[in-house]
Design a protein that fits this description.
The chain is an alpha/beta fold and 390 residues long. It folds into two domains: 158 residues, 3-Layer(aba) Sandwich (Trna Endonuclease, Chain: A, domain 1), CATH 3.40.1350; 218 residues, no CATH class. Helices cover 47% and strands 9% of the residues. It is built from 17 helices and seven strands. The strands form two sheets. Strands 1-2-3-4-7 form a five-stranded mixed β-sheet. A two-stranded antiparallel ribbon has the order 5-6. Helix 10 crosses helix 13. It is elongated.
C-alpha cells in the first residue's frame, strides 16, 4: 500500500505512530506529548507483540518536513539518531532495552556491489548505526521507515480511515461523496456547486473595508500578501517567517478529532496532550484579518476544486490555479490536508439576527445561518440534519 505522508506534520505524524503503537503493541503503553519528550514518543514494558523481545521498549517518531534526495534524507535521519543517542549519554534517561525509530523517510534496501566495491542501502546503514547503541545497553532495535509504516497501516483499516484525508493521495471530496451519496444521490453535484459558487463569489478583494468606496474589481488572488504574525522574528527571511495563512495551512496538517482537541488520549494526561483546535486572529481595523480569513477559505476551496475543474470547468480551474499559485508565492505549503471551508460574515449574521428580532421571528442559530448560506450557494434545499452526516 502506497500512502502519502506529505500532508502530515511532525505532531500529526507522532500521533499516527502512537495510535499505531497502541494497536500493534498494546494499550498498556504510555505516550508523551510533542516537545521535550525525553527521547521517546511511546514506551512499553513487557513482552512485545510482533518481536521476540521482552523488556522496556521506546518508540521514537522522526518526521522530515521536506523530503529531498535519498542521500539527503538518509543523512538527516542519521543526524537525528545521533542527537537521540547523545540524549541518553548526557541526560539521566532510562536506557531502553529495545528501540524502534519510526520515520516518513524512505530507506533503500538495495545492498549489492558496484564493481568490486560493496554498497549498502539506507536501511542497512541505519540498522548498523543503531547497532552501535548496544554500548548504551540497547539489546535490539528496528526501523519503521515510510514503506514499512504503509505496510503496517495496510492491515489497520480503522486507523487508515481515521487518517485517510492525510494519507491517501485521492481527493477527500470523493471520499465524502461516497459516504453521503447513499442518502443524497445528488450530493456530488451539490457539494461541488457550493464550492464553485463561493469560490467565484468571494474572488474579489473587498477594498471598501479598507476605505476605497470605488471598490474596483480586483481579485484577492492577484494582490494578497500573507502578513507575519506578531511572534515572527523581525528582519527574518520571508520564507522563515510565521505568516497567518501559511500558519493555518500548517495547522491543517494536524488531526483535530474530539480526542485530540480535548486531550483524551490513552496513557497521557490532558494537560500535556491538548492540541488547541481554535485559532483567533487579532489585529486592528484594516490590518487584513478579514482578507486573510477570506483568502484562507478560498485556498481550501481552490485546493478541493483544482483537479476536478481542470477537465470540467475552465473558468473555475483558472481561478483555482491562480489562488494556489499566489499562495505558493507567499510561502504557503500546499500539501495540507483537504478541509471543507465555511466562511461566516459576522456583520451579515448580525443583520439576520436583527431582522429576525424586528419581525418577531426565531433567532437563527449559527448552524441555521450556515445551512441557509450553503443552500443559496448550491441552489438546493439543505436541511440542518444533513450537516450531521457531512
Amino acid at each position: 500500500m502506497n500512502l502519502d505522508f506529505s500532508r502530515l506534520n511532525g505532531q500529526s505524524f507522532e500521533r499516527l505512530i502512537r495510535t499505531l503503537c497502541f494497536q500493534l503493541i498494546g494499550s498498556p503503553g504510555e505516550v508523551f506529548a510533542s516537545g521535550a519528550d525525553g527521547a521517546r514518543d511511546f514506551t512499553f514494558e513487557g513482552q512485545i507483540p510482533g518481536y521476540e523481545w521482552t523488556g522496556y521498549l521506546v518508540v521514537q517518531a522522526k518526521f522530515k518536513e521536506k523530503l529531498q534526495s535519498p542521500a539527503q534524507d538518509l543523512a538527516w535521519l542519521k543526524k537525528q539518531l545521533d542527537n537521540e543517542k547523545k540524549k541518553y549519554q548526557t541526560r539521566k534517561l532510562r536506557i531502553p532495552a529495545y528501540y524502534i525509530v519510526a520515520t516518513n523517510v524512505s530507506l533503500s534496501g538495495a545492498d549489492g556491489k558496484t564493481g568490486a566495491r560493496e554498497t549498502k542501502g539506507g536501511a542497512t546503514k541505519i540498522k548498523e548505526q543503531l547497532a552501535g547503541w548496544k554500548a548504551l545497553g540497547v539489546k535490539a532495535s528496528d526501523v519503521w521507515a515510510a514503506d514499512k509504516i504503509s505496510d503496517l497501516l495496510g492491515s489497520q483499516e480503522s486507523i487508515r480511515r481515521t487518517y485517510s484525508a492525510w494519507l491517501t493521495p485521492g481527493d477527500v471530496l470523493v471520499e465524502l461523496i461516497d459516504e453521503v451519496k447513499g442518502r443524497r444521490p445528488d450530493f456530488e453535484q451539490i457539494i461541488r456547486r457550493a464550492l464553485r459558487t463561493n469560490l467565484r463569489k468571494d474572488q474579489y478583494a473587498r477594498l471598501r473595508d479598507a476605505g476605497d468606496v470605488a471598490d474596483p474589481q480586483i481579485r484577492t488572488s492577484q494582490i494578497f500578501v500573507d502578513l507575519p504574525l506578531r511572534n515572527s522574528p523581525e528582519g527574518s527571511d520571508p520564507h522563515n517567517r510565521i505568516n497567518s495563512v501559511a500558519h493555518l495551512a500548517l495547522r491543517a496538517k494536524e488531526k483535530f478529532g474530539p480526542r485530540e482537541a480535548l486531550g483524551i488520549t490513552i496513557g497521557i494526561s490532558a494537560d500535556r496532550s491538548t492540541s488547541k483546535n481554535k485559532i483567533v486572529l487579532l489585529g486592528g481595523p484594516g490590518q487584513g484579518k478579514s482578507t486573510a480569513s477570506m483568502f484562507a477559505a478560498q485556498l481550501f476551496r481552490a485546493q478541493m476544486l483544482h483537479d476536478w475543474a481542470k477537465t470540467n470547468d475552465t473558468q473555475t480551474f483558472q481561478l483555482a490555479h491562480e489562488i494556489l499559485e499566489r499562495a505558493e508565492k507567499q510561502g504557503v505549503d500546499l500539501t495540507f490536508a483537504r478541509r471543507f471551508p465555511v466562511f461566516v460574515s459576522l456583520p451579515r449574521y448580525a443583520d439576520n439576527i436583527s431582522s429576525a428580532r424586528q419581525n418577531h421571528q426565531q433567532i437563527p442559530s449559527l448552524l441555521t445561518h450556515i445551512v441557509t448560506d450553503f443552500s443559496s450557494a448550491c441552489d438546493e434545499e439543505i436541511r440542518k440534519g444533513d450537516s450531521e452526516h457531512g
